[in-house]
Design a protein that fits this description.
The chain has about 240 residues and is of the alpha/beta class. It has one domain: Purple Acid Phosphatase, chain A, domain 2. It is about 25% helix and about 20% strand. The protein has six helices and eleven strands. The protein has helices at about 30-35, 55-65, 85-90, 135-155, 190-195, 225-235; strands spanning about 10-15, 40-45, 70-75, 95-100, 100-105, 110-115, 160-165, 200-205, 215, 220-225, 240-244. The strands form two sheets. A six-stranded mixed sheet has the order 5-6-7-8-10-9. Strand 9 and strand 10 form a beta hairpin. Helix 2 (about 55-65) runs parallel beside helix 3 and helix 4 (about 135-155) runs parallel beside helix 5. The relative contact order is 0.17.
C-alpha cells in the first residue's frame, strides 16, 4: 500500500564517508541510529577513500545491517582507482541503489534523483567552453552531469522529490572552503534542472569545511551533508535528519 502523500518521511542524509579497508565497525553506530530514527538513507558520494574495491566491501559489510532503503551517488574519490563498477557491485549486493542520472522511488511518494555532479564555478564566474580542448572537456563534463540530472527529474512524477549529488550546486554551502578551490567543488549548472523541475531539498557532500545550508535561486533548500562537517556540528549524529 502506498504511503499517504501528506505524511512526512524522515530522511537521513550524509556524504563523504571515506571508508577505508581497515575500518571495520566504524559506521556501526551510524547504522544503528539511522535504523532507529529514519525511514530512508541517502549517501552523497565519496563512499570510499581511495576508490578501492576492498573499501567498498568493508562499507557493504557495514551497510548490510540497515533496515531502511538506501540511495547513493558516487564521488570523485570513488573513481580514483577505476574500480567504481566493482564498488557499485559490492554495494548493490546489500541493497544500496546507486544513482547516476536516474532515480529511486520510496513507497510511491518520494522520488530521489541523483548524479555525481562536477565542478566549474558559479553564476557569472561559471567556466565556459572556450579555448583549449582540455577546458572544453572540463566544461562538457559539468554540462553532461546537469543534463543527466535533468533527465532523472523529468521522469519523476512523485508527490515529493529530493536530489542527491556529490558536488555543490550553490556557492553558499562552500563558505569556509578556500576561495581558490571553490570552482572545483561544484557549479551552478547543477542547480538549473532543480529550479526547473522543483524539489523539496538538495543534498550534497564534497565540501568538508563548507557551510551546512544554502538555497537555489528559486529558494529550494540545499544541504551540505559531508560527514566531517556533520561531525563537527553534531558529534553524536554524523548525519542530517530531515522530514520531507
Amino acid at each position: 500500500m502506498a504511503r499517504d502523500a501528506n505524511s512526512k518521511i524522515r530522511l537521513a542524509a550524509v556524504g563523504d564517508l571515506h571508508c577505508r579497508d581497515d575500518q571495520h565497525g566504524r559506521f556501526r553506530q551510524l547504522v544503528k541510529q539511522v535504523n532507529a530514527e529514519a525511514d530512508m538513507l541517502v549517501l552523497c558520494g565519496d563512499l570510499t577513500d581511495r576508490g578501492m574495491v576492498e573499501e567498498g566491501k568493508v562499507l557493504a559489510e557495514e551497510l548490510a545491517a540497515l533496515r531502511v532503503p538506501v540511495a547513493a551517488v558516487l564521488g570523485n574519490h570513488d573513481y580514483e582507482h577505476n574500480q567504481w563498477k566493482e564498488i557499485c557491485g559490492e554495494l548493490s549486493r546489500v541493497g544500496v541503489h546507486i544513482l547516476d542520472g536516474d532515480h529511486f522511488i520510496f513507497e510511491k511518494t518520494l522520488g530521489v534523483a541523483g548524479v555525481k555532479g562536477f565542478g566549474g564555478g558559479f553564476g557569472n564566474a561559471t567556466l565556459q567552453a572556450f579555448g583549449e580542448g582540455q577546458t572544453k572537456s572540463f566544461v562538457q563534463e559539468a554540462v553532461h552531469e546537469s543534463l543527466k540530472l535533468e533527465a532523472a527529474l523529468s521522469h519523476l512524477d512523485t508527490p515529493k522529490k529530493v536530489v542527491i549529488m556529490h558536488y555543490a550546486p550553490v556557492p553558499e554551502t562552500l563558505e569556509g572552503e578556500n576561495i581558490e578551490i571553490r570552482p572545483f567543488l561544484g557549479t551552478s549548472r547543477l542547480a538549473m534542472p532543480v529550479d526547473h523541475y522543483g524539489a523539496e531539498a538538495v543534498f550534497h557532500g564534497h565540501a568538508h569545511h563548507g557551510s551546512p545550508a544554502g538555497k537555489t535561486k528559486s529558494g529550494i533548500p540545499v544541504y551540505n551533508v559531508a560527514m566531517p562537517l556533520m561531525t563537527k556540528m553534531r558529534p553524536e549524529h554524523r548525519f542530517l535528519l530531515l522530514e520531507v
